What we know:
The chain is of the alpha/beta class and about 425 residues long.
Amino acid sequence: MHTLLFLEPGHFHAALLLKSANARIAPDVHVYAAPGPERDAFLALLDSFNARDQAPTRWRPRVHEAAHADAALEALVAERRGDAVVLAGRNGGKLAAVARLHREGFAVLADKPWIVSGAAVPDLDAACRGAPLAMDIMPDRHELLARLRRRVTVTPELFGKLAADDPQGPAIELGSTHHLLKVVNGRPLRRPTWYYDPHVQGDGMVDVQSHLADQAQWLVDADRAWDPERDVVIEAARRWATPVPPALYRESTGEDAYPPGSAAHVRGGVLHYPCNGEIRARLAGVSVRLVADWGQREPQGGCDLHAAVVRGTRAVLEVRHGADTGFVPRVLLTPRPGVRLDGAIAQALAAWQDEFPGLTAERAGEAFRFTAPAALHTTHESHFARALEGFLDCLDAGEWPADLQPRIRTRYRMLAAARDLALASGSGGQDAP
């Protein structure tokens, strides 16, 4: 049984790891943090999980109060009340903490992004070398869309292989749209003020891009021993801002004053938050375009949106997701001219029933549209428990996949390099490197 230590839990992702009971985790969870609303929100979420009528949890949070974050880290290291540390909160300085905990012999599960600028690359290299395990939280790998997308693209009879230099666009295009005001766990999400400081939260080149880059690596080669020097070429990068007027900021945070670290992005009394980014790159020779953008308010009936186009030599896989689809994703596979897929589709559906029971495909013009039964659709919040299970599997086995550390190291080095390029081009306002 493992005992989890939570260091300064400042993001609701920390609590979502414990939304479900887990027999491999001791009920006493230790929280090292300074007093404040972020710690209180984490504890309140644990209380809500314990108090719910359906499948309540039995967590017993043990709070170890510290005057500030550095003191919390020192106390955690000195007391060693558990074997694994969870980090989900302020991202500026997070990687230095990961590297320190790694040196001290703690396994670490840390939320994205690990890096907010290239200055953290030395800590990245230290954290991704040898034992113990340091892993980032990647719940998107458990999303139905992501799993189905990967299953299609690794089926040669359907997809062929990733298309090289297709005139229609990159082999892989992934897009993600989020909103500053949204509903999480049935309630409006209250963001901390530091969320709007790109030096603390991270900007549009590193935040959501962490997930998109991971998905692209997964599609290119799931088991590759990635090397950032050999396998990554950044071709273009840009970032841009979403305006956050004072009223929107107040509604989002409950506060009036923008954080001091965002001062360089305030013009005419309005924060222009550089939370959006585009990266064009080649990963192991495969052309990739990744776009993360943020709207102000989640529309009625809306949700986080995930669109994709993956171009193969036999077919093109497309995920359409937006207001035009009623915020319900549509997964389409369109054969290349002269390619017939009817037989391959039938064989694939039969072979996939253990993984996707009830999955069907029907003609939609020239394309085949995949439809999954409601039982296969799970919430984003539920995927954090599955990410935790993967982490625990590695701890229990005493080893982890050989590709894990090089994949993480390559991903964040790529994002740091893309951010440097975007800033050098002057896009999205000026920041320190």
